[in-house]
Amino acid sequence: MPQLQVRQRGEVLRSLNLGRQLSIGRTPDNGLPLRDPSVAVRHAEISVEGGALLLTDLAGSETGTFVNGHRLTPHQPHRLEHGDEIQIGPFTVAFLNEATPAPAPPAAGRRDVQGELAARPARPPLPTYPAPRPPATGPAMYTSFLPPFYQESEFLGRFLKVLESIWEPMQRRQDSVDLHFDPRVAPPPVLGWTAQWLGIPLDPHWPEARQRAWLREAVTLYRWRGTRYGLTRALETVYGLTPVLREDSAEPHTLRVTLLDSLDGEDTASREAVTAFVYAHSPAHTRVIVEWADPPPAPAPPPPTTERPAQPPAQPPAQPPAQPSAEPPAAPPPPRTSRPTQDVSE
User: Is residue 209 one of the residues assigned to a domain?
Assistant: First the structure.
């Protein structure tokens, strides 16, 4: 039976029998989930037509789908042959159409490890600005809607200026009311109201960028609440931590969550807060054990380099002064005088 062998950095992650239509993407609802931000939610698809297996690129993104180093045209099926290597993000998927020996199971129970330790800082939020107010001085804008005869009235202009200062901010706020429901650009006081409306907890101690990212992903994460993918994505969204999830058949109904203990900073939360968050979003009826790994050492600063003082540019050699000539200068030629004309009439 045809098989797909998923490798990353030369290590075989899993082997999958291929006998039907299969979707490849980032989320767990795909037949072959590949957990990496560079992989699209629905990246590619393998279909069976006439006994042949066809690979179709569905993303058409900058990452793309490559077969043996050649990029596939989006939405154009490509027939797979034995030994083809499919490159999707950091993953290499080998297509094997011959029987290959199955790897021997480990001696002490089956272990399932998912994820790689990482800690990412929060992106700065998009800048928000209050609605501009009409100018306090100058003619009122509303006078332009009146006939020309009334536009010359100074009293009417001042009267409309009062109404304009009250009504114009309300009109502009109404024109942009849809932006209040977008967590990326909504005013900060609206974030708490949006969280209550959606029924999700929002810690006011989280940085503003984390609050906006959490509200943006809340509806999608409701679908994956209580799953390994939902727990991983929630930790990445709120704390920027990518966990390593381990399950061992020797410890049934037990999930070990390993997190990277990030350095202190404005975007760093306490261990107690992160642990409580893991318990709130972990799968039900399971025993969760949270473990912490030390952060990698910071890279050593480069040794100071002693800069040599800049030397002034080399001056060209001085030219010797011009020697005076021994011969006197030639006298200028005398001016030419015109001869008087004679009168030939005499």
Answer: yes
- How many Cβ atoms sit within 10 Å of the Cβ of residue 40? 22
Assess whether 199 and 288 both reside in one domain: yes
Condensed to tens digits (0 to 9), the pLDDT of residues 238-278 reads 888 889 999 888 888 899 999 988 655 555 678 888 999 99
In this structure, which amino acid lies at residue 129?
Y
**Does position 44 have pLDDT exceeding 70, yes or no?**
yes
Give how many domains the chain has, as a whole number.
Answer: 3
* Greatest CA separation for the chain: 150
For residue 278, the one-letter residue type is V
- For the chain, the distance separating the N- and C-terminal CA atoms, rounded to the nearest angstrom, is 137
The dihedral region occupied by 211, where left means phi > 0, alpha psi between -120 and 50, and beta the remainder, is alpha
Spell 230-243 as b/e; 16+ CB within 10 A means b: bbbbbbbbbbbbbb
pLDDT in tens, 228-247: 888 999 998 888 888 999 98
The number of CA neighbours under 13 Å toward the Cβ of 37 is 8
Q: Decide if 343 is inside a domain.
A: no
Identify whether 204 is part of a domain.
yes
3-state helix, strand, coil in the chain (%, to 5): 25, 20, 55
Averaged confidence pLDDT in the chain: 77
Q: Which amino acid is at 97?
A: N
How confident is the model over 157-199, as pLDDT tens digits?
A: 778 887 888 788 787 777 777 777 888 888 888 888 888 888 8
> How many Å apart are CA 16 and CA 4, to the nearest integer?
5
Q: With left for phi above 0 and alpha for psi between -120 and 50, is residue 64 left, alpha or beta?
A: left
What's the predicted TM-score (pTM) here?
Answer: 0.49
Contact present, 165 and 158 (Cβ < 8 Å): no
